[in-house]
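Entry for the shared binder. Reason: the reviewer on the internal report wants the predicted structure included alongside the sequence.
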Amino acid sequence: MCEIHRRILLLLHTLLVLCVQLRHVEGGAVPLTSENLDMTLASNELVFINFYAEWCRFSNILAPIFDEAADAVNKEFPDAGRVVMGKVDCDKENSVATRFHITKYPTLKVIRNGQPMKREYRGQRSVEAFSEFVRKQMEDPIKEFHTLKDLEHLDSKKRIIIGYFDRRDMPEYNNFRRVATNMKEDCQFHVGFGDSVSQMHPPGHPIVVFRPDVALSNENDETYTGKMNNFDEMNIWVQEKCVPLVREITFENAEELTEEGLPFLILFHATDDTDIIKDFKTIVETQLISEKQNINFLVADGKRFAHPLHHLGKSQSDLPLIAIDSFRHMYLFDNVKDMYIPGKLKQFLEDLYSGKLHREFHYGPETTPEENEIKKSTQPPESTFKKLAPSKNRYTLLRDEL
């Protein structure tokens, strides 16, 4: 019975792939519904979806452009199971729109190996731009090395996943490749095959290893001990290793981080001050891990982010320093050296939650209610990082704006 069930599922999968291919033959983006969506996501490496509404003027402007781009992409990637450009009519497929938290139209989302990317597509909306975006997404993120000596020259400031395999045509390597496409923004991926890596693993038993950013952290190498033929298990493990508790904020990922909606606890550091980064990461990992659902822990190059420093009344000569950006105001940690005192950073966060930071900025510590009434106050510096969030000057419509 199990074999019959397996064959039926395989047949259904084949039929759905054929249906998607027929849609491609008809031209334009593939209409996705609650009936064909899950199988489409599960059977393709990349699905690029236009969530639209018929009543939306901007959706109607985008539709022919997206359809033309779908035809161009289908010509460039004709093999089944690689790329699908799809479209969802959100009024007809309300459950699909709700599932993907669609509130404005059109919204463009990318799903890789069944998993939505953190960031929506917000690039140029043209046939050429869509095609180039898909082309970039489909580039192989894995760099092959040919001798173990090559691994001595990897970037010590990057988090790295290394695979040791007998051959490229192994199903285990295909899982590794799929994981790499999902996590390529967060880790570097390297792989070796055959004789060049035979001393690193037993024949027929590939190995995957995590190498931390040793220049910026005190973490150690770690070998994956899960099942090599289980994509989900490997993907979860790699995600845990590639997305650390303390992340670096850059202009490239700031939008994504602000969209997470959590206040920032930021260490601003001099460009070459790797020691303070290591210490900050260790303190957060050992003392503040219980706060990870409430706070985003970040490090920022004070030279690149000079504007927030200026907002705090500081300059590069004052580095390193620690601040909270609550997305309303910014608050400065009194003395960066105090982070080495157990409980000090934890109390800084508690004072944010309780409103004490805001009150003390206005009135200073240990003042009476009467003094509070008399004392004139100024506002804490406004958040600067909220300005890096997605622009509200979008050409798309919210349902509530009708």
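Summary line for the report: The chain is about 35% helix and 20% strand.
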